[in-house]
Design brief:
alpha/beta, Amidase signature (AS) enzymes, 8-stranded mixed beta sheet, 14 helices, 11 strands, binds glutamine
């Protein structure tokens, strides 16, 4: 079948079914069909990249030239970027077809997709439950077969946790592997783009196109590109797996723990050696993150002032009124909470007590992993504390919501690649196994995941 037929198939499904899930904010039907037609012509030449003609969805955090990019916020409801993010450009150049822009927590702040200006996303496995966040739209779209794959971003778990809750594969690459240019910033030292797919093989194909060196992002690493599909079938004989004892403590649902332990044992059958390790500063990762991420967000979001772009209040009396009301009306509650926390942590007199301290703790957390990777190749544990929870279960308690990312946040603080793959069900809902690798060891993670799947 042709790319036009495949694209029509997905567009039809979106039109028919997405009212149940609310995974898309914008469907770019005309662009998709035009791109599919061009891809069919390129495929006919016999010389086209692997993704040519394949439809995908982009998280609405990636700028798309001429297409509204909302970041899940009223603040950017009217924002039409004049350029493409590097990630979007990479997929366009590879001939991939853009189906549309998918839903997310406002400015990627959240773990349940309940904070989007466009309404919550429903988990296709159980529509009373959240899909996870912040990339809940990416995960729900792939889980409901409304896209074969989607782009996403992960600042503290936003690729891995929704992948876990929706029974999918999600990969957060090493910080610097994927360009952040044109990806709306939340916490710049932690943000990283990556794919959400059904399988590790699909994730490898997606990452092959997504990863690039980009001189427009000064934190992008000039490291040779790899073909992540080339090592998928390597043997796992002798692979050293470390299981941190801190990832199986209080707060982890016992049935989830059981599924994750069983999955790790499967790796032993594939020839891996499993041993217990310790990441002693694990319990400090949530507090350190919730100082550093809000601090960076308070600086990044200062650009939304009602002047240059985005939402502007009606009839401002003067400049201060313009700032105050544009930001007061344009941002949602969680975003405001983060800006307040971050501004406080950075203010004179508190900076040393909070921000500097959090950065020192971050260094200790990274060192835990550096030490661990002297002895093991891959670290494994749960991705989330439980399967998908119901709407409203955590939305009125920010700290309960923040603890949702207790197993994923340390990876971002350290800059390491992390992945979540499905490893079974609890009460009919998916559970994710998390794999954490050394810097630039995405190929190893994908290899291990592919052998398991
Ligand atoms: N849930 C975390 C937060 O709310 C992580 C979000 C993310 O990775 N973008 O900050």
């Amino acid at each position: 079948f042709s790319s036009v037929e495949l694209t029509r198939h997905y567009l039809d499904r979106i039109a028919r079914l997405d009212s149940r899930y609310n995974s898309y904010i914008t469907v770019t039907e005309d662009i998709a069909l035009a791109q599919a037609k061009a891809a069919d012509e390129r495929l006919a030449t016999g010389d086209a990249p692997a993704l040519c003609g394949v439809p995908i969805a982009h998280k609405d955090i990636f700028c798309t030239n001429g297409i509204r990019t909302s970041c899940g916020s009223k603040m950017l409801d009217n924002f039409i970027p004049p350029y493409d993010a590097t990630v979007v450009e990479n997929y366009r150049n590879a001939g991939a077809v853009m189906l549309g822009k998918v839903n997310m927590d406002e400015f990627a702040m959240g773990s349940s997709n309940e904070s989007s200006f466009y309404g919550p996303v429903k988990n296709p496995w159980n529509t009373n439950c959240v899909p996870g966040g912040s990339s809940g739209g990416s995960a729900a779209a792939v889980a409901a077969h409304l896209a074969p794959a989607a782009t996403a971003t992960d600042t503290g778990g936003s690729i891995r946790q929704p992948a876990s809750l929706c029974g999918l594969t999600g990969l957060k690459p090493t910080y610097g592997r994927v360009s952040r240019w044109g990806m709306i910033a939340f916490a710049s030292s932690l943000d990283q783009g990556g794919p959400i797919t059904r399988t590790a093989e699909d994730a490898a194909i997606m990452l092959n196109t997504m990863a690039s060196f980009d001189d427009k992002d000064s934190t992008c690493v000039d490291q040779p590109l790899e073909d992540y599909t080339a090592t998928l079938n390597d043997s796992l004989q002798g692979l050293r797996i470390g299981v941190p004892k801190e990832y199986f403590g209080e707060g982890l649902d016992p049935q989830t723990a059981e599924r994750v332990q069983a999955a790790i044992q499967e790796f032993e059958k594939l020839g891996a050696e499993v041993k217990e390790i310790s990441l002693p500063h694990t319990d400090l990762s949530v507090p350190a993150y919730y100082v550093i991420a809000p601090a960076e967000c308070s600086a990044n979001l200062s650009r939304f002032d009602g002047v240059r772009y985005g939402y502007r209040c009606e009839d401002p009396k003067d400049l201060n009124d313009l700032y105050k009301r544009s930001r007061g009306e344009g941002f949602g509650e969680e975003v405001k909470r983060r800006i307040l926390v971050g501004s406080y942590a950075l203010s004179a007199g508190y900076y040393d007590a909070y921000y500097r301290k959090a950065q020192q703790v971050r260094r200790l957390i990274k060192q835990d992993f550096v030490d661990a990777f002297n002895d093991v190749d891959v670290v494994m544990g749960p991705t989330a504390t439980s399967p998908a929870f119901e709407f409203g279960a955590k939305s009125s308690d920010p700290v309960a919501m923040y603890l949702e990312d207790i197993y994923t946040i340390a990876t971002n603080l350290a800059g390491l690649p992390g992945m979540s793959i499905p490893c079974g069900l609890v009460d009919g809902k998916p559970v994710g196994l998390q794999l954490i690798g050394n810097f630039f060891a995405e190929g190893k993670l994908l290899n291990a995941a592919h052998q398991f799947q």
